[in-house]
Amino acid sequence: MASSRTVDPPFAGKFVFTVDGMTIGAFTEVSGLSVQIDVEDLAEGGQNQYTHKLPGRMKWPNLVLKRGITDTDNLFAWFQKSSGDGFTGAGNKIEPKNGAVTLMDAAGKPVRTWKFADAYPVKWTGPKLAAATRDLAVEELEVCHCGFQSS
Predict the structure, then answer these.
(1) Rg (CA), the chain
(2) Which tens digit of pLDDT belongs to each residue from 74-100?
(3) What is the CB neighbour count within 10 angstroms for residue 121?
(4) Whole-angstrom Cα distance, residue 19 to residue 100?
(5) Is the distance from CB of 101 to CB of 139 less than 8 angstroms?
(6) Mean pLDDT score of the chain, rounded to an integer?
(7) Using CA atoms, how far apart are residues 10 and 1, in angstroms rounded to an integer?
(8) Measuring CA to CA, how many Å separate 140 from each of 45, 103, 117, 124?
């Protein structure tokens, strides 16, 4: 007999971010998982009731990942390979990577994965350090990419 109860959506409190199979880290906030299709209006001569709506380019915003500072440095190491001396040492070329953001359930099992293509980091922001506050030390990574698929 089928259950009439629907499955509760997963708790969206933990994400794991990997790049070419290397775990960059677990994150508590990920934004930018969206896509938008531009629409072009085409007015047809003699057709005054409507304009044709034609699909245009897809837009993929940058992924923004946030987490508390950890003892692993994979995140910043990946950023350094794509900038400064790492960029110069690679002949001023960025090697885009494939990666994934995986939503984990409370038991630590994957619920859904978004696989993205041709990504590289474009911004890293470190924690705000102030002795007068008790805020968590949070770092942020912004990653550009050329689209993702959900699985």
Answers:
(1) 20
(2) 777 787 877 777 777 778 878 888 999
(3) 24
(4) 7
(5) no
(6) 84
(7) 24
(8) 51, 18, 20, 6
119 φ/ψ angles, rounded to the nearest 5 degrees: -105, 150
Strand partners, 142: 64, 123
The amino acid at 4:
S
Place of tokens 């677990």: 26
In the block, which residue shows the tokens 């993702």? 148
Please tell me the chain's helix, strand, coil percentages from 3-state DSSP, rounded to the nearest 5: 10, 45, 45
> How far is it, in rounded angstroms, from Cα 126 to Cα 84?
17
Q: 125, 63, 58, 60: which is closest to 99 by C-alpha?
A: 63
Report all structural domains of the chain as residue ranges with CATH numbers, in order of start: 15-37+51-150 (2.30.110.20)
Q: Is the Cβ–Cβ distance between 102 and 18 less than 8 Å?
A: yes
